[in-house]
């Protein structure tokens, strides 16, 4: 007597595997996007801390934000950000949006403030990144009359 699966049993297994794949693949994709958004949020938070520390430690800032922050330097190397050196700024991209977040050091006399402005929207990943930042915290004083050394 031969032991084997019947054709109907094989079809049921294939159908069940298809259903599992249809459910699992979108979940895995969403998990990947969430991880990318969390990584970008962490990079921006680290960059804010590094720029503030650089300004306090050196008593000044530079027009190239990648020289003040390793996080921004890494984003530029990975083509996830574009430096705007003449304006003391960097445009950070997320998803399909090239200017999702703009970090800028604004100089007014001896005062220097770090600002983060939320850029273009329309991409799910960019919109999710926007929700992670409270723009009311910015501008943040880096140097000037409000800072005591």
Fold and architecture overview:
With 149 residues, this protein is of the alpha+beta class. The protein has one domain. Helix content is 48%, strand content 23%. It is built from four helices and five strands, in the order αααββββαβ. It has a five-stranded antiparallel β-sheet with strand order 1-2-3-4-5. A hairpin with a 2-residue loop joins strand 3 and strand 4 (111-118). Helix 1 packs across helix 4 (124-131). The radius of gyration is 24 Å and the shape is rod-shaped. The relative contact order is 0.13.
**Looking across the biggest beta sheet, what order are the strands in?**
1-2-3-4-5
SS-derived structural category: alpha+beta
Number of distinct helices: 4
Could you tell me the strand content as a percent range? 15-25%
Low-confidence stretches: none
The tally of strands reads 5
Task: Tell me the number of structural domains.
Answer: 1
Order of helices and strands: HHHEEEEHE
Mean pLDDT: 86
Brief account:
The chain is of the alpha+beta class and 149 residues long.
């Amino acid at each position: 007597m031969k032991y084997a699966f019947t054709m109907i049993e094989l079809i049921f297994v294939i159908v069940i595997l298809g259903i599992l794949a249809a459910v699992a693949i979108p979940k895995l994709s969403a998990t990947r996007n969430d991880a990318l958004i969390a990584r970008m949020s962490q990079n921006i938070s680290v960059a804010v801390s590094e720029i503030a520390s650089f300004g306090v430690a050196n008593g000044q800032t530079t027009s190239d934000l990648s020289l003040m922050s390793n996080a921004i330097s890494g984003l530029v190397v990975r083509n996830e950000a574009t430096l705007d050196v003449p304006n003391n700024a960097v445009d950070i991209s997320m998803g399909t949006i090239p200017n999702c977040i703009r970090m800028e050091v604004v100089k007014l006399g001896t005062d220097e403030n770090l600002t983060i402005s939320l850029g273009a929207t329309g991409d799910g990943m960019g919109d999710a990144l926007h929700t992670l930042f409270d723009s009311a915290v910015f501008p943040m004083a880096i140097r000037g009359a409000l800072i005591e050394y």
